[in-house]
Amino acid sequence: MTAESMDKLVALCKRRGFIFQSNEIYGGLQGLYDYGPLGVELKNNLKRSWWNSMVYERDDIEGIDSSILTNPLVLKHSGHEETFSDPLVDCKSCKSRIRADHIKENKCPECGSEDLTDPRPFNLMFKTNVGPVEDGSSFAYLRPETAQQIFTNFKNVLDSTPHHLPFGIAQTGKAFRNEITPRNFIFRVREFEQMELEFFVKPGEDEKWHKVWTDLRMDWWEKQGIDKKNLELLEVPKDELAHYSKATVDIMYKYPHGLEELEGIANRTDFDLGSHSRGQSDLGLTAKVDKNTDSNAKLAVQDPDTKDWIVPYVIEPSAGVERGFLAILNEAFKVEELEGGKERTVLSLKPHLSPIKAAVIPLKRNNEDLVQKAKELKNTLQSKGLGRVLLENSGNIGKSYRRHDEIGTPMCITIDFESLEDGTATIRDRDTMEQKRLDISSISEYFKEIIDN
Ligand code: ATP
After folding, report:
1. Are residues 268 and 363 in the same domain?
2. Quick one: which of 163, 328, 345, 359 has its CA closest to 253?
3. Is the CB of 177 under 6 A from ligand 1?
4. From the CB of 261, is ligand 1 less than 6 Å away?
5. Structural domains counted in the chain
6. Residues 153 and 98 in one domain
7. Is the separation of the CB atoms in 10 and 404 below 8 Å?
8. Which residue minimizes the CA distance to atom 16 of ligand 1?
């Protein structure tokens, strides 16, 4: 079961401190959101899980963290200055601005008027100024994707690590797009985070690797708790491909507002490395570039056997953190009927994603012995390095259970008077609500098992 309604997710996020409207006290700023105490944990856990699977669990991928401010030349040569735009239409009646491909039946979605302008391209990149002088020569872009700085660092990484093809460079971080119509909560925003891998392969092996990465990414989303029946692969039609792509497969998820892109896996060919090599050549930064054979092509690798210079092809799985967050939240959200006509809301998050890994609850908030024992256990579990453990000293066990069900805490541990006598505590499972007593000395091991799985 999923939330099936965006309103329920938005309300939960605000009530429990996952997501807030950005700049809210001054009326907000459209298309921006802030992540609260629980949101930041879930977001970090999601990025960590991605990083683990990309960088730590493989030996052929390195990570980087590059700057957000980008030299305009990078985005000139990548083709973004010319082509990174959406078709913009103005409604002459209500003055709203709409993305042409979001218009149905030639009617303004705001007022229904058919008095619309012809579409014109609107570049989505944000500009800013670097340094104290604000003139045309000092501007820089906020990066619209994390990928470009992976390409510009290609040689740096290659020269400082022992890799040959195929190998990859991974990065997570902010990207900025001046979306014409941000909407659907955190689905389409103007400032977001991407988790991008650029996987460099020999030309000719690109189609095989495209398939490999599509399968790997579907499996990964399933491990984050997304039922495969809510995921679909969409082969992007040739006339809708981005300027750099030979083929793109989108992983689509059934969001509460409809089936939409969660991640795109593009075959970017040698477009970017080739363009940046040529870019440097045009600027006189390299002597001469013949991208298939010339060692002056800065962004190329030498085949260790044939000694030929190759500009690699690139397969790019590119996922949005916010879109992943929303899909995971939707998937985990359940309302269950309890005996006596009551209901409980549960977030059945995979434990590695849960913002709080365990809550330790003393039965009575004013009893020093109980609180002390609970604190000790909290500290022991916290020291395992598996994520945040909370001392929940509300004095109301029922309320604490409800709160932790709703925020997805996999287990609650209650310290009661028996705990002081025999050294045991009650563990309650979020999903089954089953309770059992365990020796406090064995809880660390049990905790590790639950969170690691
Ligand atoms: P869309 O067609 O929905 O605008 P896109 O095809 O332009 O998306 P890509 O350029 O492929 O998106 O970006 C890779 C990923 O970055 C997307 O799959 C998505 O998860 C995320 N992403 C892109 N734009 C946004 C946005 N405005 N808000 C949140 N996430 C985004």
Report:
1. no
2. 328
3. yes
4. yes
5. 3
6. no
7. no
8. 320
